[in-house]
Amino acid sequence: MSHEDRDPTSESRFPTAADARRGDESRLTAIRLLRDGVTDLRRTPSVLLAMVLAGLAVAVVDWVRLVDPAPVTEFVGLTGGRVTIHYGVMVTVVSGTSTPLSALAGLRPAWLAWVVGLELLRNGALVLAGVYGFATLLDVDATASATLRYAGVFGVFAALRAFFPTYSVGLVAGVLFIALFLFVVVRLVALPALLVTGASVSAAVGRSWRLAAGHGWSLLGVVAVVGLASFGAASVPVAGPVLASIVTALQVAVVAAFVRRANGGGSATRR
Predict the structure, then answer these.
(1) Residues near 133 by Cβ (< 8 Å), separated by ≥ 6?
(2) In a domain, 35, yes or no
(3) What is the pTM of this model?
(4) What is the total count of domains within the chain?
(5) Residue ranges of the alpha helices (H) in 108-170?
(6) Which tens digits make up the pLDDT trace of 158-198?
(7) What does the pLDDT look like over 106-117, one tens digit per residue?
(8) Is 23 exposed, middle or buried, given 0-12, 13-18 or 19+ CB atoms closer than 10 A?
(9) How far is CA 86 from CA 23, 201, 230, 264, in A?
(10) What domain range includes position 57?
(11) Residue 261: closest CA among 4, 16, 2, 6
(12) Structural domain includes residue 17
């Protein structure tokens, strides 16, 4: 059956984790998913190229933002003496600069439009690269409606990061928040891939939540490896976003591999 004949939102296409395990006796581990992701990138280098180009766009915006008069906050990375798991549900590249929302209020209209335009360029490049990567690896058509839904959800997550930045909290509260954060991230790992297949936002969230059941520790391992590698790569001066984009391409490939395994429990290589 060709992919044009399949309904990407149907339950039969994406069964539960239990169904996937019945179809594949070998255990689904983080190492296996990461290995499948690397294999897929080697077989489909255009996905890696698309994400690297998006990383280059992020780097160019960073360089421009560092010299224009609009206030920015620079990414500190490993030089700040801390390590962070930087994993975005909607695949993104760690940016070297960000603009505090409080700084936007004092900008002249021309500079405000300039900053907004650069942010749209940066995020637009990431959206297009992500959609292309998932559509290519999952062998589906990237329709305009699916792309718009993907971009909308991407924008929601970007707004959440902007409106709710990281704050210092107590040890107990911090541990509880991290545990809750990781639980939600693991459950939503498949969300961007499902959006590209044409599923509605609500259907993609529900399907991703169900697919993650039974694979929590494996997906947590993927989140930890990808998140730490992304943070480390982004910490490299100047070339950080480009290097981090390679890790992001691996994230796309791993998520696609997970969705394909949940789809049939067979080989994660593209058919």
Answers:
(1) 47, 50, 51, 91, 249, 252, 253, 256
(2) yes
(3) 0.83
(4) 1
(5) 109-138, 144-163
(6) 888 777 655 444 555 557 878 888 999 999 999 999 999 99
(7) 778 888 888 889
(8) middle
(9) 33, 23, 6, 30
(10) 28-264
(11) 16
(12) no
